[in-house]
Amino acid sequence: MTGRLVVVSGTGTGIGKTHFAEALLLALRALDARVAGLKPIETGLGEGGVSDAQRLDRASTFHVKQTGYTFAEPVSPHLAARREGRPIEVDVIVRMVDAVRRETDLTLVELPGGLFSPLGDDFLNANVALALQADNVLLVAPDRLGVLHEVIASTRAATSVPLRLDGLVLATPAAPDGSTGDNAAELGRLCEVPVRAVIPRAPVQALASHPALRALAESLGRRLS
Ligand SMILES: Nc1ncnc2c1ncn2[C@@H]1O[C@H](COP(=O)(O)OP(=O)(O)O)[C@@H](O)[C@H]1O
Ligand SMILES: [Mg+2]
User: Is the shortest distance between the CB of 17 and ligand 1 below 6 Å?
Assistant: First the structure.
């Protein structure tokens, strides 16, 4: 038996992917016994602080030794990998995630950067998302000016992979602008991928019991359609 797999990607970095993923893991824990969050590729670990892998692990009930690709420099994974002479291989990531899936009810994988950030000279996060054969792929985007372009471009580009995106998650930015709060409705009109949740600014623990997060966690118990 293989547990379900949810991939969390986004339109960029620093937009709230990990924060959302932590809250979603906490919400999922209420529904499934063995829940694990993984960050199989992470850069910028030389800067200290808590890594995304550690944040996701803290929100998990099932703990694994995170054996992914880690790089010190805060640069694109493909660049960090080239500079350190340690190329990233899709097969290695797929094997690592599959091994965790076999032991869990639900595994959540956060991909680094944006959905079309390069991991090597000839592949992108989107290719990894496809290779992982996830049950659900979620795209996090910031609820701010510019997001309509970012989401429309990303969702259209996903069809060229071809990668099926199951839902959009809009994360409220620290500094809201005149578009914040209206982008979900606009994307409902402009984009075929549905908005599954709008995430307010709140600590992870509080977000986990937010109705939008709980509804999303419950719907991930089956394939979103
Ligand atoms: N909804 C939110 N409420 C409060 N703080 C948030 C929220 N989303 C993100 N943050 C904070 O913003 C920073 C960047 O978010 P993070 O989840 O690390 O982004 P990403 O994973 O996309 O790089 C973190 O310090 C995070 O805790
Ligand atoms: Mg992150």
Answer: yes
pLDDT digits 0-9 by tens, 115-136: 999 999 999 999 999 999 999 9
* Residue 224 confidence (pLDDT) above 60: no
What's the CATH number of domain 4-219, 3.30.1300.10, 3.40.50.300, 1.20.140.10, 3.30.2130.10?
3.40.50.300
Q: Whose CA is nearest to atom 14 of ligand 1?
A: 14
- Percentage of the chain surpassing pLDDT 90? 92
Strand partners, 138: 8, 167
Question: What are 154-172's pLDDT values in tens digits?
Answer: 999 999 999 999 999 999 9
Contact 170, 141 (CB under 8 A): yes
| Backbone dihedral angles phi then psi of residue 209, each to the nearest 5 degrees | -100, 10
117 lines ligand 1 (CB under 6 A): no
187 CA distance to ligand 1 middle (Å): 22
Among 127, 42, 37, 54, smallest CA distance to 91 is for: 127
Q: Which helix (H) or strand (E) holds 120?
A: strand 118-120
The helix or strand, by DSSP H or E, that contains position 5, with its residue range, turns out to be strand 4-10
CA distances from 200 to 2, 156, 163, 203 (A): 33, 26, 28, 9
> What number does the ligand 1 atom closest to the CA of 199 have?
1
- C-beta 74 within 6 A of ligand 1: no
Domain layout of the chain by residue ranges:
4-219
